[in-house]
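Researcher: Here's the sequence for the chain we discussed earlier.
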Amino acid sequence: MAANVDFSLFTFHFSLKVVPLQLESPRETIMTISTAESCTGGRIAAAITAHSGASNYFQGGLVAYQNEVKEQMLGVPAEMIAEYGVVSREVAEQMVKGACHLFHTDYALASTGYAEAWEGHEVEIWVAWGSEGDVHSMCLREDFGRVKNVEIATECVLDEFGKYLKMIHDPFAGNEFNIA
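Model: Thanks. This is the structure I predict for it:
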């Protein structure tokens, strides 16, 4: 699946906005992606589909706010939630795997977290990205208010996904080699 991916489909700028580049053939599918979101509430999918041509690679997204949805639709084991908590690296990474499986995509992006402090929980948002066999994640803990926290998480996972694609499909990009 991943061998046919053209990471240049996206250009990721420091502003953390996704800008699709023109494909040689608008009907050609370079790669497929999906989303599984909890605390970002569909904002990752919205950022991707805000650009013309997203239907060439975006298959769909699921807002899985309740644990039962994560379990039934994304294959997150209830035991995993009980052991690590619904806001955890393990759950975020399983959400990526589950979205890839559910939507039959090469890659997925996911989020789960507490977007604001409440009932003894501090802000903690886990974002994850990758494929069924290669998932990466990171945790965001700074509190800028609920709306800004969700915005930062959305931008962060898109940016990290872009770096990931560039790394796996063009590992020498940005490296200069001098051959004597």
